[in-house]
Specification:
The structure holds two protein chains of two kinds. Chain A is α/β, with parallel strands linked by helices. Chain A has ten helices and eleven strands. The radius of gyration of chain B is 19 Å and the shape is globular. Classes of the chains: A alpha/beta, B alpha/beta. The interface between A and B is medium-sized, with 34 and 31 residues.
């Protein structure tokens, strides 16, 4: 289980513009095995930008640089566009926040998932259909045959998110980057989706990077956590030991969130120290 | 302060009718912060909008401050009840400065000393003078929500209706806004109703909480019982368990 899937050293992502260079991700180091790694931070902390950089999806004119960035032994820094196409979808993939914007609105659900099978696995139409239906069943969609023929707008938020997870996982990738996969969902649905992700990580030995702003979800779901602020990793800790976090920013984030466990007269506010980014 | 019984909201479009709120009865005491939680589509926002008079509703009785509030409201009545919306990006006019956003409310309600009131409202919500002539796009999400709160409070209402006031904000900004709301309700003796999908937020600010599902109130529970998980209904227990984080158990 400790085999290294992803090894990132000194990852930087910057966006040059007329007003100067914006450093979105600064000197990020981490490794990922076949485990669940949580990345938490507030908006603008660079967590999504980092996730995109790992998939070679940094939009222009962004610049990605790193000392080392390897996926299963393959150097991602030297990847050509065709190398990326071979990796993305097949070996590494991403689930985004809102299924409404990530599914093709004029294509049936089954057709979209089947397309992934045909493209990446070379499956024929019958094989693609079979795999799609069994994948829809794996993400606990009750009536796969009916959902196969539906369009994205006919699905609820939770169903759409499950369909998207099915599409991303049908090619059986080794690495899944989930960017706020449950933030648009109701709490009860959120836990169902998390359970599905959890099963898939366990059964298939997948590596998962789970990006979220929600400390409660991340600490209860992941094995390890990276806390990001201003593009830098402030702290890395075991999820079960988040309450013993040492960095003042992590502590402040925990204290600022209202909780069902503790009653606060007043919530602590976060004071930021410029030295954190030095 | 607010007494509604058997509130019903039905949305009709074409030949279809959608029964969004069914027989909801709420009683909010003066000075209380009453919470409504529920998942999307449970009708929690519709209850709030019906109380604000923004959408049509029917009810057996509907009293605000002891006066009947169904039907058309006078300008004075609507001044007493102000609302803060979820999305601070969508609820402020993009082409108006903070000053004119606040002033418009004062003009509509014929207030005097407009400049003094604007300055006081800006100070009340923790903004500084330099924000007075800014446009919404020049402010952060938290600052915009402060403007929305200032816009509500500048008319000195006695009731504040809050529709997911912090769900578009980061945790650290949410903490600042929640603290601000707690401070303001003390200073101005406000009665408020807070609608949210976040149990922890509601338990933090409210004393009593109504849990809604499918347009009905499942149960009304005290914040203490909610924290201890002492809920009567299984749906409430499920909601509390889900809010405490992920667990393997089905």
């Amino acid at each position: 289980m400790s085999e290294t899937l992803l090894d990132v050293q000194d990852l930087n992502v910057s966006f040059p513009s007329r007003g100067g260079v914006t450093q979105a991700v600064r000197h990020v180091n981490f490794t990922l095995g076949r485990e669940r790694l949580g990345v938490v931070g507030e908006s603008g902390s660079g967590k999504s930008t980092m996730g995109r950089a790992l998939l070679g999806l940094t939009p222009r004119p962004g610049i990605v640089s790193a000392k080392k960035m390897t996926f299963d032994g393959e150097n991602l820094l030297d990847c050509s566009e065709s190398d990326w196409q071979r990796l993305r979808g097949r070996r590494m993939t991403m689930v985004t926040q809102d299924p409404k914007y990530s599914l093709n609105p004029v294509m049936g659900i089954g057709q979209q998932i089947g397309e992934t099978c045909r493209l990446h696995l070379g499956a024929n139409a019958a094989e693609a259909r079979r795999r799609t239906l069994s994948m829809l069943e794996a993400v606990q969609i009750r009536d796969p045959d009916r959902v196969y023929n539906l369009y994205p707008h006919e699905l609820s938020g939770g169903m759409g998110q499950r369909a998207m997870i099915a599409m991303m996982l049908v090619a059986e990738p080794d690495l899944l980057i989930a960017d706020e996969p449950t933030s648009a969902l109701d709490v009860t649905v959120q836990n169902e989706v998390l359970r599905i992700l959890d099963d898939l990580v366990r059964d298939r030995g997948m590596g998962l990077i789970f990006i979220s702003h929600n400390l409660t979800v991340v600490s209860s779901f992941c094995d390890r956590i990276l806390v990001m602020y201003g593009g830098k990793i402030m702290e890395e800790c075991k999820a079960s030991e988040l309450h013993r976090a040492k960095h003042p920013y992590t502590r402040a984030l925990i204290a600022a969130a209202p909780s069902l466990e503790v009653t606060h007269k007043e919530l602590a506010t976060v004071t930021r120290d410029p030295a954190w980014l030095a | 302060m607010i007494t509604v019984s058997d509130l019903n909201v039905i949305f009709r479009s074409g030949g279809r009718a959608m029964h969004a709120v069914r027989d909801v009865s709420i009683n909010v005491d003066p000075g209380e912060t009453f919470g409504i939680v529920g998942e999307s589509g449970s009708g929690k926002s519709s209850v709030l909008r019906a109380i604000a008079g923004l959408i049509e509703s029917t009810s057996a009785s509907f009293l605000i401050n002891g006066a009947p509030a169904s039907g058309k409201r006078s300008r004075d009545n609507s001044r007493l009840m102000q609302m803060v919306f979820q999305d601070p990006y969508g609820s402020l006019h993009p082409r108006q400065t903070v000053d004119s956003i606040l002033r418009e409310a004062l003009i509509i309600h014929d207030f005097d000393n407009q400049d003094d009131r604007i300055l006081k409202a800006i100070a009340d919500v923790g903004l500084s003078l330099q924000h007075r002539y800014r446009y919404p796009h020049q402010l952060s999400g938290g600052q915009r929500q402060r403007v929305a709160i200032a816009r509500a409070l500048i008319l000195s209402p006695s009731i504040l209706l809050l529709d997911e006031p912090t769900s578009a904000l980061d945790v650290s900004v949410q903490a600042e806004i929640l603290n601000l709301l707690a401070r303001l309700r003390q200073t101005y003796d406000l009665t408020s109703i807070l609608v949210s999908h976040d149990l922890a937020v509601v338990a933090h600010l409210c004393s009593r909480i109504a849990v809604m599902q499918f347009g009905r109130i499942v149960e009304v529970i005290s914040a203490g019982d909610l924290r201890e998980g002492k809920a009567q209904e299984s749906y409430t227990r499920e909601l509390i368990a889900a809010s405490r984080g992920f667990s393997r158990a089905q």
